[in-house]
Structure formats: C-alpha cells, structure tokens
Amino acid sequence: MEPLPDLPPTPRYPCPFVTASDIEKYLSPHLYAAGWGISSLRPSDQKITPPVTQLSKRVLFPNSDIAEIFMKDVNTTIVDRENHHPTWEVKDSDDSSEHIVTIHVHTHSALAPADNQSHNDAEVFPRKRPGITLRDIRFALLYEELLRDYTRQRLINTQTSSFYLQPKEIGSIHNIQPQSQKDSDEA
C-alpha cells in the first residue's frame, strides 16, 4: 500500500473549494488510488441549487458487526476530532455475504471563488454553498488511516468498489474553474 500524504492543515472558516493544486496533491495520486471518487447529490428540497459534489467511498465488510464497530470508531476518532460529519449508506450485498458501507463527505458551506461568478449567478448561487474542501480531504485521509489499521489487524480485507467519477479537474463538477492557491489564500 502506498503511504498517505501528510494531512493538510485545518482550513479556516469558511473553507474554500479545493484548488487544482489540492487535487494534484491529494486526490489524484492518493485518494483516487484508494477507491475514493466524486459523487453528486441533488438536494430534494431545493430546485435551483446545483448538485452537491462530495467525496465518496464504498467498502465491503465481512459482516455487520465489524461494519458497525468501524463506523463507531470513525465517529469517535474522526468526527469528534474534526467536528465534521459524513453521510453513511449501509446495506447488505445481493447475496447477503457482505456488508456494504458507503461514506460521503462534503462541506455544507464551502466558499466558491468570487472570480467565477457573474452578477446574475451570485443572485442564484451564493458563494457559500456545499462542495469539496480541504476539510473533506482531511476527513478522507483520516478515514483511510483508520481503514488501513483495520486491514493490518486483519479485521477486514479492504475491498472497495468504486462507481464514482474521477475527474482530472473538479472544477467541472463544481461548475467553476478551480481556483489557484493564491486565490484561495486571498478569500
């Protein structure tokens, strides 16, 4: 297994969308290789809001007991520490031989770059909106560390199945152009 990169620093609030350099440093070489991808969620109560992009991963567990213990560990070691919570989907495989846990994480009030918005867009899509930030990347890296601990202890065999998009540029998913690190620092 390839080593994971150092955690990015905890971003300040509001957290800006990930930048092109964030994608190159964390997503492309590490998280994509570990089975993470980009999924899309359209809020059912908001017709105007663009789809929410989120980091997602699906893991197969040998039984529901280990899956539940793992999810509790995620909650006590990552969620509490990072003050950032995921969305879980849990179900049995078609033949009930495995337990499938899918995790999704995004930042609810991510800060979109100002220079990618026209005046009319600002009225429809506010700068603060759901999207993927360094908070989500930190969460995914911490999740991977915990998952690898479970694998080393032979509690699970890290089988993942990915059905998510893995774009080279996340800007097309956010409907923006990725901002440079300089733009992110000025926000």
Give the tags.
single chain; 187 residues; alpha+beta; five-stranded antiparallel beta sheet; two-stranded antiparallel ribbon; globular; disordered C terminus
What is the topology?
Elements: H1 20-31, E1 37-41, E2 52-61, H2 64-82, E3 87-92, E4 99-105, E5 107-111, H3 119-124, E6 128-131, H4 134-152, E7 159-160, H5 171-174, H6 181-186
Helix pairs in contact: 1-4, 2-4
Write structural notes for this entry.
This protein has 187 residues and is α+β, with helices and mostly antiparallel strands. The protein is built from 6 helices and 7 strands. Strands 1, 2, 3, 4 and 7 form a 5-stranded antiparallel β-sheet that branches. Strand 3 and strand 4 form a beta hairpin.
Largest sheet: 5 strands, antiparallel
Percent range for helical residues? Answer: 25-40%
Number of helices: 6
Q: Give, in order, the helices and strands.
A: HEEHEEEHEHEHH
In whole angstroms, how far apart are the ends? 36 Å
Q: What is the strand tally?
A: 7
- Overall geometry: globular
Average predicted local confidence, pLDDT:
77
Radius of gyration: 17 Å
- Class by helix and strand content? alpha+beta
- Portion in strands: 15-25%
The parts where pLDDT drops under 50 for at least 5 residues are 161-187
